[in-house]
Write a structure and sequence with these properties.
Blueprint lengths: L2 H21 L6 H14 L5 H13 L5 H34 L10
Amino acid sequence: MSEQSEALKERTMVFAIDVLRLVDRFPDTAGARVIAYQLAKCSTSVGATGESVYRLEIVKRIHLVDGSETSAVLQESIELGAIFSRSSGTARANARERRAQPPMTKSMPK
């Protein structure tokens, strides 16, 4: 794995841990329990950063915990989403480019 991939893997791990610590601080209410469960699930799934953003915005709007803590985790979720979105776009473009290129022919030895 490349150094960049390892750094991204570590960043997503730290994000998940930060969110899990954040949800542990939610009040014990029905609404907070629902959001905590959903946020814990989607924040530990690399492909669900958009869902994390949505749920963190809810947390921020209803003030389940201190706003500055939520803002930092929310910003990280937005940044990770942008990284994965760009990466996915690059992968699709590379796949289209490979399909558009004519197949390479193997020359037979004479």
